[in-house]
Amino acid sequence: MPATSKTRPCAIVWFRDDLRITDNPALDASVRRGLPVVALYVLDEESAGIRALGGATRWWLHHSLTRLWESLTAIGIPLVLRRGAAENVLTDLVASTGASLVTWNRRYGGPEIAVDTRVKSALTLGGVTVESFAANLLYEPWTLKPASAPYYRVFTPFWKAALAAGTPRRLLPAPGALTAPASPAPQSPPPGDRLDDWTLLPRSPDWSGGLAATWVPGEDGARARLDRFLDTGLSDYARLRDRPDKDATTMLSPHLRFGEISPNQIWHAVRSRDDGQGADKLLAEIGWREFSWHLLFHNPDLATRNLDARFDRFPWRDDPRGLRAWQRGRTGYAIVDAGMRQLWATGWMHNRVRMIAASFLIKDLMIDWRAGEAWFWDTLVDADMANNPASWQWVAGCGADPAPFFRVFNPALQAEKFDPDGAYVRQWLPERTGGPPPARIVDHAAARRRALEAFKTLKE
Ligand SMILES: Cc1cc2nc3c(=O)[nH]c(=O)nc-3n(C[C@H](O)[C@H](O)[C@H](O)COP(=O)(O)OP(=O)(O)OC[C@H]3O[C@@H](n4cnc5c(N)ncnc54)[C@H](O)[C@@H]3O)c2cc1C
């Protein structure tokens, strides 16, 4: 839509899961154009198929948007918040501002791609230029392709192909650091919603105290975590990353989830420090994130459909009491319960314990992995559309390149191996030191036999 006599042309940057001003290609492109820039965030709970945020990610989003607003204000760009179907919000805002350019960073979920495609054609039809960019993955899902299949189903060749594809793109500075002055904002910023009116924060009860004590959402918090890890954790990462009793991983997952830091920034920061085992291992974990998104792009229903269709016949048990005991950390298995308490208190759980807790739900309780995925979706601050279902399917044995179903974790042995002094369990289950352990809701050996019997039916 061309600018009217009352408006000057401007550019709109539509922020989504990329809540940062550094290394943000969509923001960089708009600012470089020299037009006044308006930033937009849309809380879209209306467009078909978009998965509603869980409680923990709503808390994170509130704080992340506050930080983004501060960073953008400092470089003279207003952040407009609007709630509604993205297509309507974008067309309204373009009409009222006379924007001639809209930029965004690409998304890879099925419903999100459908929304972006619709918005793009509506705006283009009205004469607006729309530009989209690669920003939140090192390799967009369609850029890595095996010779003889539509997409990679196995991690190792996927990551080999990624590494062979060369160094990821160069880093982009934050606009304030450009030599040209940051683009002036329009005289009066378009009206938007008040963040508080979105009621993203929990009220009654307010369960977010443990989250606030653990995290600093936003770009600065992400950068501080990365820098601290590079100084203190990288060299030991390969050796200690499986130890939940140590502070040995980056804890960058929620920051990556909201795009407060890009994998590209991590890549260059890690490579500039170290070429050793720790660096390779960390980048391979970033590679698992890339692989999950590759899988989601090629399987938009990853959170609901078993990739291995044989599992459609699996005799999952309907066990609401077991599910509740697992959710509340009352299974009687200390490492599982400690993990579930860590999750409830902080919105995060160590990767090794996620695997143990997920295995317990799926195999010891024989509860459908989708029930566990949904609980994690609601309670994790890093709840991720790709990583969460891909990891659950991996543990269940029905995913791409999964752990085999018949490999059933023994929670007691896992605890001995990865929490040898019991420090992790003591931290999250202080009440269990001394007193008798609570009754176990299942006997692991019997539960294992039951699961393996059920698994046999898939082969018949
Ligand atoms: C059942 C289950 C559910 C999970 N759900 C999520 C989720 O919703 N969101 C999420 O980000 N991760 C999920 N993971 C993967 C992993 O547990 C977390 O990414 C990791 O624990 C985050 O901690 P960190 O940032 O300290 O990881 P680090 O070890 O420091 O790794 C750095 C980054 O690499 C990525 N990464 C690490 N491990 C994995 C992995 N196994 N798969 C994919 N990416 C990985 C993450 O982005 C992580 O932030 C899940 C794993 C399991 C077993």
UniProtKB/TrEMBL annotation:
Alphabetic keyword roster: Chromophore, FAD, Flavoprotein
Biased amino acid composition, Pro residues: 183-192
Entries under InterPro entries matching the protein: Crypto/Photolyase_FAD-like_sf, Crypto/Photolyase_N_sf, Cryptochr/Photolyase_FAD-bd, Cryptochrome/DNA_photolyase_1, DNA_photolyase_1_CS_C, DNA_photolyase_N, Rossmann-like_a/b/a_fold
One GO BP annotation of this record: response to light stimulus
Sequence ranges assigned to domain Photolyase/cryptochrome alpha/beta in this UniProt record: 9-138
Keyword Flavoprotein: yes
Cofactor(s), names only, from the UniProt record: (6R)-5,10-methylene-5,6,7,8-tetrahydrofolate; FAD
Residue(s) at site: Electron transfer via tryptophanyl radical: W316, W369, W392
Highest taxon of source: Bacteria
Cofactor remark from the record: Binds 1 FAD per subunit.
MF (Gene Ontology): deoxyribodipyrimidine photo-lyase activity; DNA binding; FAD binding
Gene3D superfamilies, per database record: 1.25.40.80, DNA Cyclobutane Dipyrimidine Photolyase, subunit A, domain 3, HUPs
PROSITE patterns, A to Z: DNA_PHOTOLYASES_1_2, PHR_CRY_ALPHA_BETA
Residues holding FAD: Y237, T249, T250, M251, L252, S253, D382, A383, D384
Annotated stretches, region: Disordered: 174-197
Family under the similarity heading: Belongs to the DNA photolyase family.
Name under which the protein is recorded: DNA photolyase family protein
Organism of this sequence: Microbaculum marinisediminis
